[in-house]
Design goal:
Distance between the termini: 34 Å
CATH architecture of the largest domain: 3-Layer(aba) Sandwich
Helix content: 40-55%
Number of helices: 14
Shape: globular
Radius of gyration: 22 Å
Low-confidence stretches: 1-14
Largest sheet: 5 strands, parallel
CATH topology of the largest domain: Rossmann fold
Order of helices and strands: HHHHHEHEHHEHEHEHHHH
Length: 328
Amino acid sequence: MAVNAEAHGDGLPNERPDPITTLRGWRRFVEAVPPHFELLPEAEWAALSEAVRPAYNKARFDYHCGRVVLATPTIQEIEEQVGLSQLNHHDSIARRGLVVSGPPFTGKSTGLTQLGRAYELWVRQRYPSQDRIPVVYVSTPPQWSPRNLAAEVARFLGLSPINPRASFTNFVDAVGQALTEARCDLVLVDEIHNLYLPTAAGEYPSDQLKYLTERLPATFVYAGINLEQSGLFTGVRGTQTAGRFVFVNTGPIPYGPEWEGLVATLEAGLRLHCHEGGTLTGLDRYLHERTHGMIGNLSHLILAGALAAIDDGSEAITRQLLETIPLN
């Protein structure tokens, strides 16, 4: 068996990984190797002692919890927009950006991070001898302002604290200089729907976001819930801001061949000793009804089922087991 995880003798990880909203955490995410695990032959598994079995099961827990990226058409569409960054290199005034919008659990954050990862790997391959920070990834907590957003970009870059009394324009100029020195091309902003909108139409944040995208030398990619309906991109000023962005919409996946293929991919990745192949594909309609076609719910349901099957010793995912797992 093999897993990509370092652990103490007690089975606990050596350290809690840094979040990907930090430079160290982001680089670790970009460089991560897909998890790999091979089941022991049945005779060896059955002969495992009680002292060794918990470590074997823990390794399978780690494998199943490894980030599995399903290549949905939406994620592929998002990744195809990477060319926007190259176009913006030749247009310093009307830079264009990308907005990924849709309901919860429809793959927005996954698409956003995969776009950033693919771009950074491309940059590393093209400029192997240059020390760059080609991608910045930040997530927006509730009630944030565009100034807080700029500060978070600065923190990701390791910029020294900026005078809190500095004007917004001076603050942004300092962050812009840091982005230039880091040779950053993409700024990924997740959960942008959490941005504080003091007015119904969101004019003030819209103005500041427009200023950010114009003054910071990078391509901005925003992801959030139903952003077309938010004050950031509606009203006179919001519409002007929206005009400089390409919108990619995520949503539930309809029942059909694409859904069946996703279920089959997840089932093929299971590492359970008694699970019969084809069980989940035979339940694909039930899984669609249960998850409402939401890819995030599907991944969670099957992952939770795998962990439960290891924990209770059944080593198989059944409809009966899935019924015990709550979903949002």
